[in-house]
């Protein structure tokens, strides 16, 4: 099975576990890790809307809870199984855990993370600040 189909099916499966009683907008996400594992996540809403967890947050939490590593391929779907784009906050999260070469399935096909989030802020920016304080 193709990696993209495997990930899309994993995201479709986990979207049914999303907790979205307020927006009713369920999201599922799946990613391949550099060691071959597949990690998934679904959105979990909260009555205090600002503390809602996106599917990507759950996915990154599972990444670290199951041993860490780097994301290599990522896909996100809505309840109908349609590929959707991660929000800006989640693009930043994905960049942090997959880097510029992370491949992302988008509505316009597969794109690298550095295309999806060009000129991203990251750990290298923090190193620059620390270096200037020395």
TrEMBL record:
Record Pfam families: dCMP_cyt_deam_1
Protein name as it appears in the record: Cytidine deaminase
Swiss-Prot/TrEMBL keywords: Hydrolase, Metal-binding, Zinc
A molecular function (GO) term: zinc ion binding
Binding locations of substrate: 43-49
Listed PROSITE patterns: CYT_DCMP_DEAMINASES_2
Highest taxon of source: Bacteria
Source organism (scientific name): Nocardioides perillae
EC assignment: 3.5.4.5
Binding site for Zn(2+): 54, 87, 90
Role: Recycles cytidine and 2-deoxycytidine for uridine and 2-deoxyuridine synthesis, respectively. Catalyzes the hydrolytic deamination of cytidine and 2-deoxycytidine to form, respectively, uridine and 2-deoxyuridine. This enzyme scavenges exogenous and endogenous cytidine and 2'-deoxycytidine for UMP synthesis.
Record keyword Zinc present: yes
The keyword Transmembrane helix is assigned to this record: no
Family the entry assigns: Belongs to the cytidine and deoxycytidylate deaminase family.
């Amino acid at each position: 099975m193709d990696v993209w189909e495997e990930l899309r099916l994993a995201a479709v499966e986990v979207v049914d576990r999303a907790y979205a009683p307020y927006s009713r907008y369920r999201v599922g996400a799946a990613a391949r890790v550099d060691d071959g594992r597949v990690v998934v996540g679904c959105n979990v809403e909260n009555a205090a809307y600002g503390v809602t967890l996106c599917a990507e947050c759950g996915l990154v939490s599972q990444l670290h809870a199951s041993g860490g590593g780097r994301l290599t391929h990522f896909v996100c779907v809505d309840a109908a199984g349609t590929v959707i784009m991660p929000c800006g906050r989640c693009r930043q999260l994905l960049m942090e855990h997959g880097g510029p070469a992370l491949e992302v399935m988008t509505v316009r096909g597969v794109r690298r993370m550095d295309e999806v989030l060009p000129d991203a802020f990251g750990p290298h920016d923090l190193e620059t600040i620390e270096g200037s304080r020395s």
